[in-house]
Amino acid sequence: DAEITQSPRHKITETGRQVTLACHQTWNHNNMFWYRQDLGHGLRLIHYSYGVQDTNKGEVSDGYSVSRSNTEDLPLTLESAASSQTSVYFCASSWGDTQYFGPGTRLTVL
Amino acid sequence: AQSVSQHNHHVILSEAASLELGCNYSYGGTVNLFWYVQYPGQHLQLLLKYFSGDPLVKGIKGFEAEFIKSKFSFNLRKPSVQWSDTAEYFCAVKDTDKLIFGTGTRLQVFP
Questions:
Q1: What does the alpha-carbon distance between residue A50 and residue A94 come to, in Å, rounded to a whole number?
Q2: Angular region, A96: left φ>0, alpha ψ -120 to 50, beta rest
Q3: Quick check: A34 and A102 in contact, CB under 8 A?
Q4: I need a labelling partner for B86 at 20 to 30 A (CA). Which of A56, A77, A84, B77 fits?
Q5: For the CA atoms of B29, A50, A108, A85, what is the dihedral angle to 10 degrees?
Q6: Are strands A105-109 and A87-95 parallel, antiparallel or unpaired?
Q7: Mind giving me the DSSP string for chain A?
Q8: How many A/B residue pairs have CB atoms within 8 Å?
Q9: CA–CA dist A64, A44 (Å, integer)
Q10: Rounded Cα distance, B20 and B68, in Å
C-alpha cells in the first residue's frame, strides 16, 4: 500500500546541533508539506513544496530549511536546533484537495 | 489570508451525549473546509470535507458537519459519542494549495 513515513519517530538533541527529519511518500504526490504541532497553536506550516526543486516558506519557517531532489522525499533540516523547536513534526502530501499525514516525529531539544 | 477559529478547546462528554464542535473561518468566497481527527498517539486522519453542493456533509464514523455560509461556520456534529471518539479534532480551510488549521479541540468521552 502507498504510504507516507517519517523518521526518526523520536529524537532528542542538544541546542546548536543540526538535525534532519526525513519524510518519504510512495504516492508520487507532487505537493508535500511540513507542519509543527504545539499545544495551543494547532498545526502550523513550516515549509512546503509543489514539486522537484520547488520549496516555499510557510508561517513559521525561521530556523528550518527543506530541499526537494525527488518526488518521494522532503527532508526538514533544523540548521541549529533551539529549545523553541521542541515540538511534534508532521509531514503531509496531497493529491487534489486532501492532505495525507505521516505518523509524526517528536523532537526534543535540550 | 484565511484563518480558522475553534472556540472549544476542551470538551468533556459522557458516552451517548451529543457533540457539536464549533469552527469559524475568516472570510467568504469559495471555500474548501475540512475536519481532521487525531486519536491519541496517531497521525491526523480526514473525517470529512466540504467543497461545494449540499452544505450538510457526512463523514466517517457517524460524524457530519454543516456549512453555513452566512455565519462563516463549519461545525462538526455527532448525535451520540462513544468512548472511542476521544481524540483531538482540527478544523482546516484551504488557502491556495495550503491548509490553515485551527488550534484544535480536545474531546474526552467518559464511559
A1: 10
A2: left
A3: no
A4: A84
A5: -60
A6: antiparallel
A7: ---EEEE-SEEEE-TT--EEEEEEESS--SEEEEEEEETTTEEEEEEEEEETTEEEE-TT-TTEEE--SSSSB--EEESS--GGG-EEEEEEEEETTEEEE---EEEEE-
A8: 46
A9: 13
A10: 14
Instruction: Specify the pLDDT at position A1.
Output: 61
Which three three-digit cell numbers place residue A35? 507542519
* pLDDT 10s digits, B8-18: 899 999 999 99
Interface test with A, best of B3, B44, B51, B60 (most A CBs within 10 A): B44
Query: What is the Cα–Cα distance from B78 to B20, expressed in whole angstroms?
Result: 7
More confident call, B30 vs B102: B102
Q: Which of A40, A50, A102 sits opposite B97 (nearest CB)?
A: A50
